[in-house]
Amino acid sequence: MDWVQGIVEYIPANAALLRELTGNHLVQSILPIVFGVLIAVPLAQIARLNQPAGAVMLTASSLLYTIPSLAMFVFLPLVLGTSILSMVNVVVALTIYAVALLMRSTVDALNSIDDGVRQAAVAMGYTPLRRFLTVDLPLSVPVLIAGVRVISVTNISMVSVGALIGVPSLGRLFTDGLTRNYPEQIAVGILVTLLLALVLDLLLVLLERGLTPWTRATPARTARAAALEARTVAA
Amino acid sequence: MDYSSSNLFVQMGEWLSDPVNWSGSRGIPMRVLEHLGYVGLTMLIACAIAIPLGLFVGHTGRGRVLIVSGIGILRALPTLGMVFLFALLFYRGVLPSVWALVLLAVPPVLSGVYAGISSVNRTVVDAARSMGLTERQILFRVEVPNGLQVMIGGVRAGILQVVATATVVAYAKADGLGVFLVEGTQINDNGRLFGGAVIIAVLAIAVDGLMALIQKFAISPGLRAQQPPAGPLKESGRQEAVASAQGGTT
């Protein structure tokens, strides 16, 4: 099996390059997740409290979501004034997709919270902000993380596309491999990409377990929340 | 091509409005057709694989864990890498690229079909069974009509991803709308680069809009009468949530 040997020999021979590209790749896939959550959660709350504004935001975000990433990578430098080779373009584009996807599922998650729980918090004297941060938000973590897991997998595969216009990432192994007629290099790129997706997904599962201790203490989660989460995961 | 200004938007407008770019085998209409040809062939193969599989798993519940983890792995595959790998391993032609795109289209269609069947209320299915419907009748007369919107949502998500990603096949073989991006970069023609990007975006939005329309009318007549008047947020409800959770465009 020559090609297996080719793959095995490629990795130590190109360790420095692989490390650098993997680092670039991770930055471009993780930053959009963080920014996405930070932007989508407040927007979802606004959308919930103000339905007409929410409808406009959801329509706008699903329209942006429809724009193919390669077109977005080409256009963002024009809008942002960045260099076409800049990682910023990829990060901004993927953040837009993340916000579009997370906002919808977060609205559903916040809507699914039992009103009795909210009223109990109000009765105990929680201010609206404190209630949102300490009651509503933690209770929607399972749905939020289900969305984040979908985003992290797709981001890691999408970041590669930036290599077509010269943004450094593991995708460079693909573009280089094609021009040099070197399938082993492409195979290594695919394997490392799969590995990153797997590791990031495991970390997110652990994060969810850490953030939602009550789901293990009491099995009585509301059927609605469980169903909603299952749907986002299945999808 | 010579432009009257160095402004990129002006160049884009001039490239898009030049009649030369709208005719011949290398013109925009021909490239759109090529692009849609890739999408059509890919979706045909992907649906032929994913729809029967999704119906089987959704109805029987067997192999659920297997397809959920399979979908996860397929989603993580970078399509760009698969297109290039297949181009080198087989040949730089239509079919290797189509097969790489099939790997991208199967997960959303499969999870949409599966989620559609599972979303049907179990009491409805049990009622059908107690009335003496055979399993085949339950699947095609109860589960499929009730879950059709969610199922079409999956196909819609798949089409959107394939329309977006079919752009990259141009880097392996000069086909489809990605060609304008490849040429625009190679010969440093910004009008062509940005004009091509606009056409790709417009095509994606148009195709997705068409699918949204089909999805809207795919509701079974028996269910239509019961639909309560929905608010702006609820209107886009469950099916959209499933469809939008089905992962990114590439």
Overall description:
The complex is a heterodimer of chains A (235) and B (250). Chain A has 235 residues and is an all-alpha fold. Helices cover 83% and strands 0% of the residues of chain A. In chain A, helix 2 packs antiparallel against helix 3, helix 2 (15-49) crosses helix 5 and helix 4 packs across helix 5 (87-111). In chain A, 44% of the residues are buried. Chain B is mainly alpha-helical and 250 residues long. Chain B has a single domain, classed as MetI-like (MetI-like fold, Orthogonal Bundle). Chain B contains twelve helices and no strands. The longest helix of chain B is centred in the first third of the chain and has 33 residues, at 28-60. The radius of gyration of chain B is 21 Å and the shape is elongated. The interface between A and B is large, with 65 and 60 residues.
Output the keywords.
heterodimer, A: 235 residues, mainly alpha, MetI-like fold, 12 helices, 83% helix, elongated, B: 250 residues, disordered C terminus
Shape of chain B: elongated
Largest interface: A-B, 65 and 60 residues
| CATH class bucket of chain B | Mainly Alpha
Radius of gyration of chain B: 21 Å
Give start-end ranges of low-pLDDT stretches of chain B: 229-250
Q: And the CATH topology of chain B?
A: MetI-like fold
Q: Count of DSSP E strands of chain B?
A: 0
Q: Per CATH, what is the topology of chain A? A: MetI-like fold
Helix/strand-derived category of chain B reads mainly alpha
Overall pLDDT confidence of chain B: 83
Count of spatially separate domains of chain B: 1
| Most strands sheet of chain A | none
The global form of chain A is elongated
Count helical runs of chain A.
12
Poorly predicted regions of chain A: none
- Determine the CATH superfamily of chain A: MetI-like
| Count of individual helical segments of chain B | 12
Radius of gyration of chain A over alpha carbons?
Answer: 21 Å
**CA(first)-CA(last) distance of chain A:** 38 Å
